[in-house]
Amino acid sequence: MAIIKEFKEFISRGSVIDLAIGIIIGAAFTSVVTSLVNDIIMPPIGLALAGIDFSNLFVTMSEGTYASLEDAQKAGAAT
Questions:
Q1: How far, in Å, CA of 5 to CA of 28, rounded?
Q2: Which residue among 3, 23, 42, 65 sits deepest, i.e. has the most Cβ atoms within 10 Å of its Cβ?
Q3: Which contacts of 32-37 are long-range, i.e. CB under 8 A and separated by 24 or more positions?
């Protein structure tokens, strides 16, 4: 019964609510950063490097060669 009592004290301190808010903000921040990098930062870098399209670049860490990232993922290759 001591575990249940300690758990009730932990919840009543508000730590769980703070943790939930942190997770929600972190998830939203991840989406913002991903969009910023993919839509704003990478296109000018690709343009500056002679029009390289980074969405089709990948490195295969296993044996074999693949025409596209999608083919490598379908084959189960580590990329």
A1: 34
A2: 42
A3: none
pLDDT of 36 > 90? The answer is: yes
Backbone φ, ψ for residue 76 (5° rounding)? 80, 20
DSSP state of 60: -
Please state the pTM of the whole predicted model: 0.49
Single-letter residue type at 76: G
Q: Reduced to 3 DSSP states, what percent helix, strand and coil does the chain have, rounded to the nearest 5? A: 70, 0, 30
| pLDDT at residue number 57 | 82
| Whole-number pLDDT of residue 8 | 80
77 in Cβ contact with 60 (< 8 Å): yes
